[in-house]
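Quick one:
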Amino acid sequence: MKGVAQHCFRGSNQDNSGHGDQYINVISNSMGKKLPPDELELYKLIDEILWKDWDPIGVNDTPEARDEYQSYLPHIFHLAIEGKDAARISASLVTTIETNIGLGADKEHCLKVGKKIVSAKKSIIG
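Output:
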């Protein structure tokens, strides 16, 4: 993936949502600089959307599995930052479910999640 390096390190300060400050000691763009605050906010929100709304294997009621979808997060974030539409983001989510996870995907559900991600990007970044 071009543009965003995948550097996320979990911390130990957890809040009631299950993720606390687990995110970011370092998330950098291709120039090695930390993400601007608005992009960091979007990154965190997309993580929440994948965890709470997408959850293709149904583990979001298990705090120990909180990082289950974080390996997919940089790619989805990159698509959002590039301005991809909900259909393109949805297609990536469907492919992830079918190819990486090995389950059948609910394409309608993935499209709803894609729309939520696009809406989050528009509200935070424009």
